[in-house]
Design a protein that fits this description.
Length: 404
Amino acid sequence: MPMADSPKRVLVINAGSSSIKFCLYDMENEFPLTRGIVERIGLDDPRLSYTIKDATSATEPVAVKDHRDALRVIAQHIDRPELSPPAGHRAVDAVGHRVVHGGEKFSQPVLIDEDVKRAIREYFPLAPLHNPVNYRGIEACQELFPDVPHAAVFDTAFHQTIPPEAYTYAMPVELCERHRIRKYGFHGTSHRYVTLEAARILKTSLDQLNLITCHLGNGCSITAVRSGKSVDTSIGFTPLEGLVMGTRSGDIDPAIVLFLMRHEKMTVDDVDELLNKKSGLLALSGSTNDMRDILEAASSGDTRAALAVEVFVHRARKYVGAFAAGLGRLDALIFTAGIGENSSPIREAVCAELEILGIQLDSERNQANETFVNTDSSSVKVMVIPTDEEVMIARDTLSVIENS
């Protein structure tokens, strides 16, 4: 399906269980014409929050009972006079959708057709909290924008270059094949974006770079990147494996699950709720999953908060060390996402014991949130790179359409 002449407007949609994030880009200069979120879908007091052209911001109550209603609200918002396209052009030329799980089938963004939709449905069991709502967002958007191409960009795609020795679990092969059990990895769009940005900033070809990228937010993952490609990542079959996260436990002895089911009479759903929604920083601190509040409490003498920080940092540092050993040579350590971009104390704590890898942090640069926060004598660059998953999805959408 041909695109309209420039300017090319790409709408990025990120559908969650009770919210939809959106951003409309003018891809001539990757400028966000408007971005925002419809929150509390199907709940009390749903609202639309938005910014127009990085200037006007507002929050408005809206009447939405499901994702279709929310997307209609977004479509109406895009039709505001101040967002009108030039004469003869469409308000939206293409739509890019974030889809969490693409399994082994998708290693690149793709144009959405019935086969792609069927595959997304097939992966519902592997991402029951995400793929169904991503799918509903696609269907509703196709109804609202039937005459423009739609593309799917998968969180798992960047990690499809991970080799078998890193993605295979030591379990019966027949069982793993039957249920497609293996490490998939997530946050791939973010890891890929900061990888590309690091190459741009360092003015170095991707195939010359070995990186460790740390996506630290409410959800957390660390990825080893060799020559621009993911070769290992902390998250596995589900987003539960790996680092300590806001409400997720990360790595635990799997026998703990059996122990709790036997001795606490917990059901499968009980354990799922415990490990995904009641663990992590929330459980360790006893009060919050917000690292800013935890750091403040720790500085005031709260011992549980202090332990939460120490456990979080220890787990992150362990993965950095392991991935550095696997890479053999490390050119840069990158911090991104909410905690990674904004928390200088966490960056300093993670790097504090990594001198053995040649990592030396400059405290002043780190506190100032500079792009390079390493000392001049550090053999490894330590970088703070804000992630931008939305613009990555917009770029991928434009690319797959232009190359189709």
